[in-house]
Design a protein that fits this description.
Bound molecules: zinc ion
Number of strands: 12
Shape: globular
Largest sheet: 6 strands, mixed
Low-confidence stretches: none
Oligomer: single chain
Radius of gyration: 17 Å
Number of helices: 8
Distance between the termini: 33 Å
Strand content: 15-25%
Mean pLDDT: 94
CATH architecture: 4-Layer Sandwich
CATH topology: Purple Acid Phosphatase, chain A, domain 2
Helix content: 25-40%
CATH superfamily: Metallo-dependent phosphatases
Strand order of the largest sheet: 3-2-1-11-12-9
Order of helices and strands: EHEHEHHHEEHEEEEEEEHH
CATH class: Alpha Beta
Structural class: alpha/beta
């Protein structure tokens, strides 16, 4: 049975619900690559869901920032404001859950789960060149990662990297190394505002890249009502 791969939900409840409805029946477990919270207005709903629903999850940099593990000087003003807001909003139980999230990479059923890159949870893998220099630290030829909010990823052939365009399905080939990004559920930044996710079929080695519409108006209204930076609402319409 395939599993659902989610990343960068960023406290966007409507996007998460749309993804779960779209994938309904197509998977039997869920893995999550970090950044459950930060930016969005529903951190508790998303963390409550994660606590009961995911088979494996690692932390992202925003999960760290929102529980005070990071110096916020390194974040842009919108991220900083949302981290401060989220710290206040989180229930004690949910805060404790985030504090205990493991740092990636995490080995899960023969694949690696990472937030930024296999070597560094804060590293952005943006270009094939970045991927070439990123060693799969746990040794699996397949690593799922997030952090850039760009669906797709990279394939390495004898160390040479190539970008994967997320069009439909990808059948993994033996002997190659893959870094696969399911895209961001709650704040896509690849120019497509639809919520992004992936399904992985371990038996056949097939990755399905998927997108689904959600009620952006509702999410944006909640962000504004929470007095989070307006930019965090408007950018959702652009997917940037
Ligand atoms: Zn993120």
């Amino acid at each position: 049975m395939p599993y659902l791969i989610l990343s960068d939900i960023h406290a966007n409840w409507e996007a998460l619900q749309a993804v779960l409805a779209d994938a309904n029946g197509a998977y039997d477990r869920i893995v999550c690559l970090g950044d459950l919270v930060g930016y969005g207005a529903d951190p508790n709903a998303v963390v409550d869901w994660s606590r009961t629903s995911v088979a494996a999850v690692i932390r992202g940099n925003h999960d760290r920032a929102c529980i005070g593990f990071d110096d916020l000087e390194n974040y842009n003003p919108a991220a900083r404001a949302s981290a401060v807001w989220t710290r206040e909003a989180l229930t004690p139980d949910n805060r404790q859950y985030l504090e205990k999230l493991p740092r990636g990479p995490l080995a899960y059923e023969g694949v690696d789960l990472a937030h930024g890159s296999p070597a560094d949870e804060d590293e952005y893998l943006v270009t094939p060149h970045d991927a070439e220099f990123s060693q799969p630290s746990l040794g699996s030829p397949l690593c799922f990662f997030g952090h850039t909010h760009v669906q797709g990823g990279f394939v390495l052939t004898r160390g040479k990297g190539r970008r994967i365009l997320p069009t439909g399905t990808l059948t993994l080939q033996r002997g190659l190394e893959y870094l696969i990004n399911p895209g961001s559920v709650g704040q896509p930044r690849d120019g497509n505002p639809l919520a992004a996710y992936a399904l992985f079929h371990p038996e056949t080695g097939v990755v399905e890249y998927r997108r689904v519409a959600y009620d952006i108006d509702r999410t944006a209204k909640k962000i504004l009502a929470a007095r989070l930076p307006e930019f965090l609402a408007t950018r959702l319409y652009e997917g940037l």
